[in-house]
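Hi P.,

Sorry for the delay on this. The queue was packed all week, but I finally got your sequence through. Input first:
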Amino acid sequence: MDILLVLKALVMGIVEGATEFLPVSSTGHLIIAGQLINFPAKDNVFEIVIQTGAILAVILLYFAKLWSTLVRMPHDLMARRFAFAVAIGFLPAALLGVAFHDFIKEYLFNLYVIAIALIIGGLIILWVERQKITVTVSTVDDIRLSDALKIGLFQCIAMIPGVSRSGATIMGALMLGIERKAAAEFSFFLSIPTLIGAGVYDLLKSRHELGTSDMLLIAIGMLSAFLSALIVVKGFVAWISRNGFTAFAWYRIVLGILILAFLIV
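Then the structure:
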């Protein structure tokens, strides 16, 4: 296999893992990075499937919580409520993702959509950060099922590349009165079924178009996404607990403007 192509897959994986859980849109960054380094995209299957690598990092980092929930579910009401909250939050994106999968990939995976979504999303983050919202939920275990469904509806907006799945879910959770750390962690847990489901669905739909070399590149991308996500996730939680999301908002706005300027000029 071409060593340059392997290095490009490594870079794409690093970009995915580094941005998946930040409110900056990993899909948008992957499309931008792919065009910058001329990475061959087969209907964006690579970009979608390697997200699973980043999810494995979350599973590892929060394994104790996930395992405890699984073991306690038969006899613990709080464990069952947490699991149901994640399942309910996952449902809207699962249903709409299947319904609009082909439309989204055909018409929305382009730099114009990404740039506009980055800017609008950045402005929304700035607006949310300026609101005086009373915190009513302090941990992921306390998230109500009705709030989980609302967060799941916010997640659907992130089907538009450039919006950011983590950004949409975290901002939605904050507006519902959920504390910052709990909002971020619920977004992480919600990403597990959402992104694994998206990756498996896309892989199955495209399995006849992928050769051995394609699968090897996907494996390389998943591994580098896993490693970079391991580094980013804990640091992100610590950062937002101290500093909030304003820096990410300005980053989105500046990046979106630069992309539009590049496209227009």
